[in-house]
Amino acid sequence: MNISANIEKTGLTKEQIEAYRPAVSDALDRLWSGNEPMTGWVTLPVNRNQEELNTIQEIADIIKDEAELLVVIGIGGSYMGAKAAIEALPKDASGIEVRFLGNNLCTDYYWETLQEIKEKNTILCVISKSGNTMEVRTAFEVVKPIMVEKYGSVAEASKRILAITDEETGTLRAEVSEYGYSSLVVPSDVGGRYSIGTPVGLLPMAVSGIDIIAFLDGARECANDAGWDHDLADYAIARHLLEKEGKSVEVFGLCHSRLFYLGEWMKQLFGESEGKEGKGLMPTSLTYSTDLHSMGQYLQEGRQIFTETLMVVDEPSVSIEIPGGPQKGKTVADINNAMIGGVISAHRQAGIPITELHIQKLDTRTFGQLIYYLETTCAITAMLNGVDPFNQPGVEAYKKEMHRLLD
Ligand code: PA5
Q1: With a threshold of 0.90, does the pTM exceed it?
Q2: What ligand 1 atom has the least distance to the C-alpha of 127?
Q3: What is the residue-wise DSSP string for 273-295?
Q4: Nearest residue CA, atom 3 of ligand 1?
């Protein structure tokens, strides 16, 4: 495993952690039992559907051959995982541009995307498990006529539309039958924010030139390693205990710029899985060292509501030496490491408990491990907190109000 958590600087004792091991063991048994709803993601990288993977790769290869641009329409779990992977990972030369739409309702962003669609040979991939999400429906309805105009007819446009949705239910599945779009399935037992290892994440990743088999291999390595004594259990327990000790916010300190959207994905994963029944650490992410020059002040001297998880990539892919000045001969990575050491020491002095989450290197296999590691950690902490990690009743509230206002 290329991922490890060090909770020594949280101030928690070994005895406190050990006391929760049986509860973690129970949680892992439940996750792996096959009897808990929405836990299909747990075994996904281990019991692979090879036929489906071949189909995903074949469709991705066709898209790469035929198009210059893939526009992915989706929001939440139907957007964030692929976006995080595409921003973080190396790609081969066959990959094409992937642009996302439907993840916001900004008219100006729509306009820019529509111009790109008009200019470039485009395939549209609409992703929605429910098929009914307002942001996604809005984007799809805006783009469809532009595709029809560009490609000459509904039939020609439909050949360039791929839908990823529930196998049977929802408006999008009905449209697949009506217009003959190509389609892939979001498994019914995998929720949006846990769906990166399904066609939802894999198809856009493959089109961008990411090796999806390496990604799944990494996830499987973590799955095979996730015993009760693994250090992800320590991290999950620490998160539970730190909240019990009064911390209310978990800051993910991202010490690598390519992890920015992973931070966004983590906010969704942890926030939507744990923030319920008045419980859960509020997840937020900061990019270091950029945000040390802004939010660093609040962390150091503001209200002490934080626990901090530093996401550290140990081996940069290249080495850059500083050619002059007082740090001459050191590398940029040396300065980054000194920054991380400085953060640990200063924030500890301010009373912030710190977990170090080490990512050996930012390659695709390690990223697969990391995703599975974080999903499992999140599910375990939620279960220790006594909440269901796989529902999101609170998200419905704004949707109901939005529909009421539109009606
Ligand atoms: O994690 C979740 O379930 C949500 O964030 C969904 O992914 C999000 O609301 C989008 O839903 P859908 O895929 O049904 O359009």
Answers
A1: yes
A2: 13
A3: HH-BTTBSPEEEEEETTGGGGTT
A4: 192
